[in-house]
């Protein structure tokens, strides 16, 4: 990495952040409104870039750009709602108030599998909150990053530098993490990446927002509507070729409906149209790389060596021989296998029978990650237990939909090895601001808090 270039980039970002933060927040929102309009105009072209680089099927790529547009709309409204609370003061003629201010520069490190949406989660909030952003995209997503930057440049007038891109790999991420001038590091990627970068940011007591790996589970209860359940399970497990942080990896099925569920899931998976992601008909595209394919096969071989039953999982020689298409694997396990406890970024779905819902919830929670979870049931007692403090320990808990495909309105993120961060909707904007607590005395006395006396003697 060229240090001079890096320093220039950070200086530019700092300068623009000073100008930008002095605009009233609703005016910042107006820029984001125009950005959303530009993304609408360029939706098809931007989606094509996602399909090109991330190998996502067309409808998912379009959905990803739509997610960025939705974030713009959300942030425009938010630009008039960066509320601070006013609290009653215990002292007469005093007022106690929270004021929110921008942080400065946000360093945003993103993964290959959501090359635009995750940036939009961060940028739209960071920008209306008054910050500039330096974006270190995945080395696999540079064209997507440039596409977004070009859209911003079209509408940003003098604020082009609000988004600056730092292309590169580990070295560039580490430089941002070490740099005191970067007020917040928002990093999305594997848990391993988070574990390596977090200590660097913590060593300078920097602010950190982590969105890391998942190992998501769903539970199917006897009362579930199996039509919607099977569709929800297959989309979550096989959609995006199993390469979402929220992809479904573990499935616990009640013994009464186990055989029927497995048979229907297997039929659905066998009928999936697997093929070139830019064809309208394709439902599942290739894996991102040969390395991903090899990682998948190592896990399946290890399971085979233990005589675990596997349906599918093989490479499909279709279309371009350089691509790695696979049939999603359904792995029927009698007991919890070690392979189930880690995130393999490929379409492998472990399926296990259960008889008691509490056991299923406990198996679901008994992994290091804590991102997304689902229950399929029409029994209100079961769904409420799942959502209660004794239920799912994840950041996302769904009823009668799969683990993937969250909307932007809610806060997105997970617990434990998923990193604890929350981005996108709800009050996630608070991550991008600093809170000032102000006490204002408009009286003529100086009473001290907690009744402390300090009178002249
Ligand atoms: P990755 O961890 O390989 O890379 C993510 C980003 O971090 C990239 O920009 C990469 O250059 C950088 N990076 C990786 N290792 C690094 C290191 N040691 N030092 C410095 N920088 C490093 O992840 P990926 O393969 O691009 O994406 C898949 C992973 O991301 C999965 O684990 C998935 O669950 C996770 N993910 C999480 C979320 C979420 O919101 N929780 C969203 C998308 C992806």
Automatic annotation (TrEMBL):
Pfam families: Aldedh. GO terms for molecular function: aldehyde dehydrogenase (NAD+) activity. It comes from the Bacteria. Its EC number is 1.2.1.3. Keywords: NAD, Oxidoreductase. Residues 3-435 form the Aldehyde dehydrogenase domain. The active site is at 211. Belongs to the aldehyde dehydrogenase family. PANTHER family: ALPHA-AMINOADIPIC SEMIALDEHYDE DEHYDROGENASE. Homotetramer. This is aldehyde dehydrogenase (NAD(+)). It comes from SAR86 cluster bacterium SAR86A.
């Amino acid at each position: 990495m060229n240090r001079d270039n890096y320093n220039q980039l950070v200086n530019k970002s700092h300068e623009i952040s000073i100008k930008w933060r002095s605009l009233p927040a609703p005016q910042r929102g107006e820029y984001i409104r125009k950005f959303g309009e530009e993304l609408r105009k360029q939706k098809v072209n931007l989606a094509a870039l996602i399909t090109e680089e991330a190998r996502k099927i067309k409808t998912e790529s379009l959905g990803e750009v739509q997610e960025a547009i939705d974030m713009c709309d959300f942030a425009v409204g938010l630009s008039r709602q960066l509320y601070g609370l006013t609290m009653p003061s215990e002292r007469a003629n005093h007022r106690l108030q929270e004021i929110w201010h921008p942080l400065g520069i946000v360093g945003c490190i993103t993964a290959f599998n959501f090359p635009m949406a995750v940036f939009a989660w961060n940028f739209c909030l960071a920008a209306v909150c008054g910050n500039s952003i330096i974006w270190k995209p995945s080395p696999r997503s540079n064209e997507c990053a440039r596409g977004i930057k070009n859209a911003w440049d079209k509408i940003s007038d003098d604020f082009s530098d609000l988004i600056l891109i730092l292309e590169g790999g580990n070295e560039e991420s580490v430089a941002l993490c070490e740099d005191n001038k970067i007020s917040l590091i928002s990093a999305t990627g594997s848990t391993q990446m988070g574990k390596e970068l977090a200590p660097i940011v913590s060593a300078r007591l920097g602010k950190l927002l982590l969105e890391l790996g998942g190992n998501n589970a769903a539970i199917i209860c006897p009362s579930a509507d199996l039509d919607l359940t099977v569709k929800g399970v297959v989309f979550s497990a096989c959609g995006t070729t199993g390469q979402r942080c929220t992809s479904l990896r573990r499935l616990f099925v009640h013994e009464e409906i186990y055989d029927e569920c497995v048979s229907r899931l297997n039929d659905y998976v066998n009928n999936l149209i697997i093929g070139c992601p830019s064809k309208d008909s394709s439902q599942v595209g290739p894996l991102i790389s040969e390395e991903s394919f090899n990682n998948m096969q190592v896990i399946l071989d290890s399971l085979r060596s233990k005589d675990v039953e596997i349906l599918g999982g093989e490479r499909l020689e279709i279309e371009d021989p350089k691509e790695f298409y696979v049939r999603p694997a359904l792995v029927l396990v009698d007991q919890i296998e070690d392979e189930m406890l880690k995130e393999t970024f490929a379409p492998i779905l472990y399926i296990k029978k259960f008889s008691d819902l509490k056991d299923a919830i406990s198996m679901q929670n008994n992994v290091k990650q804590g991102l997304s979870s689902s229950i399929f049931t029409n029994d209100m007692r079961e769904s409420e237990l799942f959502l209660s403090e004794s239920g799912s320990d994840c950041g996302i808990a769904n009823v009668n939909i799969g683990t993937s495909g969250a909307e932007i309105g809610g806060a997105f993120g997970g617990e434990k090895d998923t990193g604890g961060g929350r981005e996108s909707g709800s009050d996630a904007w608070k991550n991008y601001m600093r809170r000032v607590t102000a006490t204002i005395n408009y009286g003529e006395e100086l009473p001290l808090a907690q009744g402390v006396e300090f009178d002249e003697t």
